[in-house]
């Protein structure tokens, strides 16, 4: 599936009265940084998320699956289940994630797939012999909400016993998640990972997602200006401290059309202390969706080179010397499964070899994607090491295009060889290289010792 994200452009920001009103709350010298925050945001449409979710659920084919939308409950619960083993009733107000789960589930059933159950009870789990429990969330920042949700599920002794005997497995499906969230969820799961355990808890927990990153790697999400962006978020005192960088200080830059994650910067959604956010109370405004209609994040180097940004990120990681798929996954912030598919695609297209090294086609693709000239073959036959040239740089001429390099080098070689035989150079033509050495290699007179005269040499300059 080709994933695309909507983005704000400078033209959109200039023509929006709502955005200008939001920008007016910042000091004049901070407005450029605030605009940079808006341009770094990625917006995921409902249909994109729904299609992605449907694709991931369809891949779980090992028997019937029970789907539960992860959410935070307003009133504290002792257990997710009532006395009869039924889940709690859904609230009357809109729940973005749950509505999408119901929509995706309805589409799966229309296609003839009856293996997915919508928030089933304990009796239904027992009757249908469900072995896969799927927990669905759009964004997981700290992992605390999912950990609390699993804890409420495990209040059922029946479910807990199934888990202990390895009869059920959890699949946490989230479009965005952090590595710390995975660690926290594993930590709070009942059970152990001891090597003597027959059913280790990590073997019964599976994560499925698209974006997967370290929450403290701000440069990957916010660019080279991340320090100024963090300082701006921290400087808005009207936003509570815990919300300035988002919940858990995750500083996510991805927003869904159906909901605004609380791990995004609080200046975007927090309404406290008179602050006027763009997305009040974490609700995506209609005007913002209308503003970005038709603006996608997927860009092509040219009309004949259909390579998306995710695949290009894999090639750039390989250019940096990153070979292992898991290391590439961490470097580009995508789920390992997504990264593996991208690597296979790059290998099939001839961009990478089987060792995940860039081919010549892959190098040229990166060069073309940044609008550079075609890389010419470098002529190394005329290369002279720097250490052979006293006080001079390498004689290999530099230039933006390889052809220019070769022309300049050949012209110099012809001059050097016109007074001498093949492989020899006239001494008249090498005066520049045999001239006085630079100051760094000029010998200095020895200075006198600290105590007494130096009987073995002349005195230093200071004693003359």
Task: Kindly describe this structure.
This protein is of the alpha/beta class. Among the domains are: 10-45 and 215-291, no CATH class; 60-85 and 94-213, Rossmann fold, CATH 3.40.50; 309-360. It is built from 17 helices and eight strands. The protein has helices at residues 10-15, 17-23, 31-40, 46-58, 96-110, 122-127, 144-153, 157-164, 179-188, 218-222, 226-235, 286-291, 309-319, 325-332, 336-348, 360-369, 402-417, and strands spanning 42-44, 65-69, 116-118, 132-140, 169-178, 205-208, 211-213, 254-256. The strands form two sheets. Strands 2, 3, 4, 5, 6 and 7 form a six-stranded parallel β-sheet that branches. Helix 4 (46-58) crosses helix 5, helix 13 packs across helix 15 and helix 14 crosses helix 15. Residues 295-306, 372-376 and 393-434 have low confidence and may be disordered.
Give the biggest sheet: 6 strands, parallel
Average pLDDT: 78
Can you identify the CATH class of the domain at 60-85 and 94-213?
A: Alpha Beta
Cα radius of gyration in angstroms: 32 Å
Q: Helix count?
A: 17
Envelope shape? globular
| CATH topology tier name of the domain at 60-85 and 94-213 | Rossmann fold
The appropriate CATH architecture of the domain at 60-85 and 94-213 is 3-Layer(aba) Sandwich
End-to-end distance, in Å?
82 Å
